## 1
Amino acid sequence: QSQLVESGGGLVQPGESLRLSCVGSGFTFGTYAMKWFRQAPGKELELVASISVGGGVDYGDSVKGRFTISRDNAKNTLYLQMNNLKFEDTAVYYCKAGLSYWGQGTQVTVST
C-alpha cells in the first residue's frame, strides 16, 4: 500500500521556524516529483513548493525566501524548512507525490 505521512507541524509564534517531514512508502519515492500544498480555513488549496526528480525547486510567491523544500531519496523523505513564520502561514500542510499520492496533512498554527 502506497502512502505519505507528514509530521512536524505544531504551534509556533511569529518569526519562529518549523521543519515538516513527509515519508513515503510503497512506491519508488525517488522517481516522483514532490510538492507541498497548504490549505487555510475557508481558503483554496495553495501550492507552496515543489521539487523535481533532479532536485530543481520552485516556490509560491508568498513563501519565497522563507521556506526551503528538499528531499532525501535514501530516506524516502521530503522536507519543508519554514523560517520566519507569519500568521498567514497557518494552514494544514500536505505533501503530494506526482499526480498519485497525498498525505493526510499536518497542522501548522502561527499565533501569539
Note: The longest strand covers residues 18-25.
## 2
Amino acid sequence: QVQLVESGGDLVQPGGSLRLSCAASGFTFRFYAMSWYRQVPGKERELVARISSNGVPTNYADSVKGRFTISRDNAKNTLYLQMDSLKAEDTAVYYCYGFASWGQGTQVTVSS
C-alpha cells in the first residue's frame, strides 16, 4: 500500500523558514520523481517544485524560485521542502506527490 505522509507544517511569521518532510512507503522511492504541490481554498492545486529520481534536475514555480529548495534522501525514502523567506501568499496546504499518489497534506500558515 502506497503511503505519503507529510509533516512540518506550522504557523510562521513572514520572513521565517520551515522544512516540510514527506515519508514515502509502499513503492521503490528511489526510482520515481517526486513533487510538492500546494492549494488554497477556492483555487486549483499548483505545482511548487519537482525533483527527479536521483535528485537532479529540480524545477520550481516562478513564485518560489530562490526561496524554496526541494531535496530527497533516497536512503530514508523521504522528500523535503526547505522554505525560506516565507510570505503571506505561501499560506496553503502543501501536498507531496509521487507514484501517482497524494499525501494527506500539511498546513503552512504565514502570518504575523
Note: The two ends are 40 Å apart (CA to CA).
## 3
Amino acid sequence: QVQLVESGGGLAKPGGSLRLPCAASGFNFRSYPMNWARQAPGKGFWWVASIYVDMTTGYAESVKGRFTISRDNAKNAVYLQMDSLKPEDQALYYCGKCTYSTTDYRGQGTQVTVSS
C-alpha cells in the first residue's frame, strides 16, 4: 500500500532553515507528481509546492525564493528545503502523492515550529 513518511521537522528560529524529507513506498514513485502542503492550527490544508515527473516545480507565492522542492527517484524520496523561515511558516507539513491533479495520499505530517 502507499506509504508516505515525513521527517525533519522541529524548531527553527526566524531566518533559519529546515529540510524535510519524505520517504515514499508502495507505488511507482517516479511516475507521479509529488507535493508539500501545510496546515496551521484551526486552518485547512494550504498548498506549498509541487514537483512533477519531468522535475519541473511550482511554488506558492509566499514561499517562492525561500523554499525548494526536489525529488530523488532512485531513493523514492521528495524533499522540502526551507530557508529564511518566518513565524507564519509554522505548521504541520505533509507530503502528498498526486494523481490527475488531485492529492490522493498524504503522510502523517511533521511539525515545523518557527520561534525565537
Note: The CA atoms of residues 40 and 91 lie 4 Å apart.
